[in-house]
Amino acid sequence: MIQISPFHPEIDAIWHAVASSGARSVAVVAAEFGEGTTLIAGALARRAGLSMMADKPDDGRAQASSLLVDLNLARPGVARILGLRPLPGEIVRLDALGLAVLADVGIAGAEGWRERSHLRARLDAWKSDWGMVVLDTAPLLSGDADIIPGAAAAAAADATIFVTLAGRTPANRVREARAKLAAVGANVIGAVLNDRDNPSLLAELDRETWRFSSLFPRQMANLRARLHRIPALKARI
């Protein structure tokens, strides 16, 4: 089960951008499959829930404050990363995390979910019960006719976060996806460059030291040791 810490610096920055915008619903979108929307959406929803729990009076009882909704019917991933086996339409509460999860909206009712008005009505209903609603969406450029369009979810949400996988998604596909968001009037408040498949700065510097190891073995060994003691060089976006 792969997850990102809700207190990772990048997730913290995304959460503060959402909170400062005043949005109470946010769609996490990407151009194509596999760019990391599920991991970002999950971590953001947990961050929102934990933050709102901390702001509530301490009565000794944890209570879910954010709702994570999986609208990616083609490749749903929320249940998998959280280890859940929900029934269609079932909202699972994870109160200790400040989180509730709707991981299966039910394929039978998917046709209605494709309408922006239906999505907005559902979001309004959820926002009456939860402090924050985070939507994990299908890719903006997916040609699958049986899914809930990511653009429709972005248009219905108060705010949108756009995720791109560095080194894989072509620039023209990113531009096409951003054009779709602009066409539906999505309120894009931030973008995430997912560096999952690229080496960290530390790995790059470490690799460079080996080029000179034959000439300066002791110096390069000392330099590598010093580089590995700098936490900032290990950060990934």
Give your account of this protein's structure:
The chain is α/β, with parallel strands linked by helices. It contains nine helices and seven strands; from the N terminus they run αβαβαββααβαβαβαα. It folds into two domains: about 10-195, Rossmann fold (3-Layer(aba) Sandwich), CATH 3.40.50; about 200-235, no CATH class. It has helices at about 10-20, 35-55, 80, 110-115, 115-125, 150-155, 170-185, 200-210, 215-225, and strands at about 25-30, 65-70, 90-95, 100, 130-135, 160-165, 190-195. A seven-stranded mixed beta sheet has the order 3-4-2-5-1-6-7, with helices on both faces. It is globular.
Key terms for this structure?
seven-stranded mixed sheet; 237 residues; 2 domains; 16% strand; alpha/beta; Rossmann fold; 9 helices
In short:
The protein is an alpha/beta fold and 237 residues long. The protein contains 9 helices and 7 strands; from the N terminus they run αβαβαββααβαβαβαα.
What oligomerization state is this entry in?
single chain
Low-confidence stretches: none
Q: Please give the CATH architecture of the largest domain.
A: 3-Layer(aba) Sandwich
The profile of the biggest β sheet is: 7 strands, mixed
Order of helices and strands: HEHEHEEHHEHEHEHH
The portion of residues assigned to helices is 40-55%
Task: Please report the total strand number as a whole number.
Answer: 7
CATH domain topology of the largest domain: Rossmann fold
**Termini separation (Å)?**
20 Å
Task: Tell me what portion of residues adopts beta-strand conformation.
Answer: 15-25%
